[in-house]
Amino acid sequence: MKLKFHKTYALITLLLFLTEALIAIYLKTGFIRHTVGDFLVAILMYSFFKIFIEDNHFKIAISVLAFAFVIEFLQLTNYLKLFNLQDNYLAKLILGSSFHISDLVAYTLGIITVVGLEYKIYKLWIT
């Protein structure tokens, strides 16, 4: 694993974070809040790791997807209560509090999008 700071991924991460924050603040329900937000958070997590790690795009993407799945499946348990975070708004917002299969689909589609874009960019760069 090679560490290197990437300004482009830092900018992408910042823009995605601001988008996620605006969604969280202004949209309380609906498709954009629940599905597009999860789609974007997978891309946000990927781009955050790419700020610092110059490694195989696919490995990072699969790692992010696995992490997202673990957090989502933890929502089947009472894990927030275990850490005494059940009343913490920020913890609920970031970690979630209810399991939805549609979240897994959104995370997967986000990672598929990232891998596809990285592949296209890589091919354009090489060609």
Keywords:
single chain; 76% helix; mainly alpha
Description:
- The chain has six helices and two strands; from the N terminus they run E-H-H-E-H-H-H-H.
- The protein has a two-stranded antiparallel ribbon with strand order 1-2.
- Helix 2 packs across helix 6 (101-126) and helix 3 (57-74) runs antiparallel to helix 6.
- The protein has one domain.
- The protein has 127 residues and is mainly alpha-helical.
- The mean pLDDT is 92.
- The two termini are 25 Å apart.
Shape: globular
**Count the helices. How many?**
6
- Helix content estimate: over 70%
The total tally of domains equals: 1
Unreliable segments of 5+ consecutive residues: none
Short summary of the structure?
This protein is mostly helical. It has helices spanning 7-26, 31-52, 57-74, 79-82, 89-95, 101-126; strands at 2-3, 53-54. This is DUF2809 domain-containing protein.
Write the layout of secondary structure elements.
Blueprint: E1 2-3, H1 7-26, H2 31-52, E2 53-54, H3 57-74, H4 79-82, H5 89-95, H6 101-126
Antiparallel strand pairs: 1-2
Helix pairs in contact: 1-2, 2-3, 2-6, 3-6
